[in-house]
Amino acid sequence: MLRFFKQILIAFFVFGLIIFLISLLLPSVVQVSKSVLVNVPKDSITATLLRIEDWKKWSPFLQDSALQYNIVSGSKANWQAADGTVNSIALNKYGSDSILAVIHSGDKVVFNSGFTVKSSADNKNVSKVEWWMIEELKWYPWEKFYGLFSESFKETYVENSLEMFRRYAEARFSPHMLSPE
């Protein structure tokens, strides 16, 4: 009986070692990037993305009715999760075409995210909005395997959110509201 138990223990150890070695081959960073064309000038889009209050109108990230969001400033919001952890998102302009969004959970950065907004060369009233996310994973095998599955989820989330942003921005800045250049 003891010999059988020893063989089972060795099999679990070997199986765990194989899983660990496979996880070393998996990437330690999840990167997602999607873009959309919006029929709104670049400056209006940048201003809208920098206002966290506007995010409530298009981003599912700030639309959970079970949570109470505290708008700390025009570009920062906090909320408390069900487990008591205080989460936050802070938006900062990073260059003329970029906005950096850092999401914290407690004291740790969950992931970095950001937007790049560029005007169309042909039409200044059309802008390309790119949303990117970068999440660094720890060496733990379960985090590496999580990264494989989370990438497709994040791509879908970003793509759907960008489409909601496009509809919101185009409705807010309809052609009759735009000022001539």
State the gist of this model:
The protein is of the alpha+beta class and 181 residues long. The protein has a single domain (27-177), classed as Alpha-D-Glucose-1,6-Bisphosphate, Chain A, domain 4 (2-Layer Sandwich).
Write up this protein:
The protein is an alpha+beta fold and 181 residues long. It has a single domain, classed as START domain (Alpha-D-Glucose-1,6-Bisphosphate, Chain A, domain 4, 2-Layer Sandwich). The chain contains 4 helices and 7 strands; from the N terminus they run αβααββββββα. A hairpin with a 4-residue loop joins strand 4 and strand 5. Helix 1 crosses helix 4. The protein is elongated.
Topology:
Elements (H helix, E strand, L loop, with lengths): L1 H24 L3 E10 L3 H9 L1 H4 L14 E4 L2 E5 L5 E8 L4 E8 L2 E12 L7 E10 L4 H32 L9
Antiparallel strand pairs: 1-7, 2-3, 3-4, 4-5, 5-6, 6-7
